[in-house]
Specification:
With about 300 residues, the protein is of the alpha+beta class. The protein contains 6 helices and 15 strands. The longest helix is centred in the N-terminal third of the chain and has 15 residues, at about 75-90. The structure holds 4'-deoxy-4'-aminopyridoxal-5'-phosphate (PMP).
């Protein structure tokens, strides 16, 4: 497998080990940072790499920078060129995961809004281990962050304190992963992925007001499902107890892709096997991200 040798920092490519951030930056001391996780998939037929939904990732990042009052605004074309250069410099021979991190470089007081620094790392990432087996989730006793405290739609690194506590508790309790509820007890999302369930033939996902990240994969699933079936995904509140009525369930995210969920709180989801709609969505998703079907939406950016 290829290795990450080169990293991008503030527009410069450099050896991976040489990127540096001072420990007193706001990025470190107050987690004044945002990030995006992206993937560039290799088309198995042509061997070309294309970044999936780059424009949407950059749009979300810029919206987050606005909320967090960062001084700097990215030029999407400049970032596209830099990310393409980063990928090429690492000479990957398989799919690439890109972590783009933006932070306040100033040292000292909390309320500073610049200068803004950024790094991007490209690395190999294996398919998540539960993609073919399905995972067991436990509903967490940690609540999901709420919008008026630390808005989950902003992909701030600070939000991952909440996600990490949840993930570690799930591991300690013997689950593969967790689901979080909103402070009012409705289903929100997993620590690093969004949630979908099938009930009586309908595909359902917590609506955007459920303290979730505005996930790009969630939007991709909603779009692809509509195109494949002619039916809309139902976006609504989901009660905790409704989880146990689900016939199928899956998680989705850029890193996680589409992961079947076969057990929640040690109860089987449906018959406890990976469901047909979930498998179908995995297939359509992989054909789309790898460019094996025509890119009607302009989702694939060449490297
Ligand atoms: N929710 C959370 C909390 C996440 O960290 C992620 C991963 N970015 C997702 C959902 C999925 O988002 P996306 O599809 O944009 O990768």
């Amino acid at each position: 497998m290829w290795q990450a040798n080169i990293i991008l920092q503030n527009g410069q490519l450099m050896p991976y080990a040489e990127a540096k951030v001072h420990p007193m930056t706001l990025g470190m001391t107050y987690a004044t940072a945002l990030f995006e996780g992206l993937r560039a998939y290799r088309n198995p037929v042509t061997g070309e790499f294309k970044i999936f939904r780059l424009a949407e990732h950059l749009k979300r990042l810029q919206a987050g920078m606005k909320v967090m009052r960062f001084d700097h605004v990215f030029d999407p074309e400049k970032i596209r060129q830099e990310l393409a250069g980063l990928i090429r410099a690492n000479e990957p021979d398989d799919d690439v995961y890109i972590r783009l991190l933006v932070y306040i470089e100033a040292l000292g007081l909390m309320a500073q809004t610049g200068p803004v620094g950024y790094t991007a790392a490209a690395s190999p990432r294996e398919r998540p281990k539960f993609a073919d087996t399905g995972m067991s989730l436990g509903v967490s006793s940690w609540s999901r962050l709420s919008d008026n405290a630390s808005p989950p739609r902003v992909k701030a690194t600070a939000n991952y304190h909440n996600a990490r506590l949840t993930q570690l508790q799930a591991k300690a309790d013997g689950y593969d992963g967790a689901l979080m509820l909103t402070p009012s007890g409705k289903v929100s999302e997993a620590p690093i992925a969004c949630f979908f369930m099938v009930r009586d033939g309908k595909l359902i996902t917590p609506h955007i007001g459920s303290n979730i990240l505005e996930s790009i994969t969630r939007d991709t699933v909603i779009t692809l499902y509509q195109e494949a079936t002619g039916r809309a995904v139902v976006e609504r509140e989901i009660d905790r107890s409704e989880l146990y009525f689900a016939d199928e369930a899956f998680l989705c995210g850029t890193g996680q892709e589409i992961i079947p969920v076969v057990q929640i709180d040690r109860l089987p989801v449906g018959d406890g096997k990976i469901g047909e709609q979930t498998r179908q969505m995995q297939k359509i998703y992989f054909e789309t991200v790898r460019g094996l079907t025509p890119d009607h939406h302009g989702w694939l950016t060449p490297v």
